[in-house]
Amino acid sequence: MQKRFAADLQFQATTLLLQERIPRATAFYSQAAEVSSLRTAAAPLEPPFRIFTDPNSSMPEVQLLSNGRYHVMVTHAGGGYSRWKDLAVTRWREDTTRDPWGTFCYVRDTASGEFWSTAYQPTLDRPDRYEAIFAEARIQFRRRDGNFDTHTEIAVSPEDDIELRRITVTNHHSRAKTIDITSYAEVVLTSPAADALHPAFSNLFVQTEILAQRQAILCSRRPRSVDEAVPGCFT
């Protein structure tokens, strides 16, 4: 029966796939031991990272953070978007010449009235020193504006569908300063295609409320129909 089965033309066309060749050369035991010792002695590789010092480049550099469900894209100038599965959390438009979309934070000196953003966008104010650091699981922005150092860290939780942003402001002035910090984002909570077609119409269904006990703003989307799901998020 084996010979009759092997005589079939369709089977003969694939018989070479079933033949497993024996390696012609084998590694000596001494060589294998040497490679094993090198592997144990080698230092662990550090995760790669990129550093950008010029935010006003011709093409934006981007970094993606995701846990498989919640996604964050940030450019080296500070723009980008946040998405949860197929829903756009914040508004974003693809444009290589402009990058004014994303989640931003403004810093203002109440005494002088000067203000800037924690990254280059959206104020486009040139800092004294600027660094955008893209690591494998974290994004950092460092900038110096006069006597103020601003350090921003962005990460996505691997367990929960949340985005974490921590901002540290250091005052190097000889006296105490009072500053205002204001965050800004255009909340969408719908598919990117639907928001691109009718952004003004999409804004009609986003409602917000302040939760004083949690020191948070709750953004939710009012359903246009009974069957439409209503996602929500904390910002």
Instruction: Quickly count the helices.
Output: 5
User: Which structural class do you get from the secondary structure elements?
Assistant: mainly beta
Low-confidence stretches: 27-35
As a whole number of angstroms, the C-alpha radius of gyration is 27 Å
Describe the model.
This protein is mostly beta strands. The chain is built from five helices and 16 strands. The protein has helices at residues 2-6, 9-12, 29-41, 192-197, 199-203; strands at 50-52, 62-66, 70-75, 80-84, 87-90, 104-109, 115-117, 129-134, 139-145, 148-156, 163-171, 179-184, 187-190, 206-211, 216-221, 232-234. The chain has a five-stranded antiparallel beta sheet with strand order 1-8-9-10-11, with no helix packed on it. Strands 2-3-4-5-13 form a five-stranded antiparallel beta sheet. Strands 7-6-12 form a three-stranded antiparallel beta sheet, with no helix packed on it. The radius of gyration is 27 Å and the shape is elongated. It starts with a helix and ends with a strand. The model is unreliable at 27-35 (pLDDT under 50).
Q: Could you give a short description of this structure?
A:
This protein is mainly beta and 235 residues long. Helix content is 14%, strand content 37%.
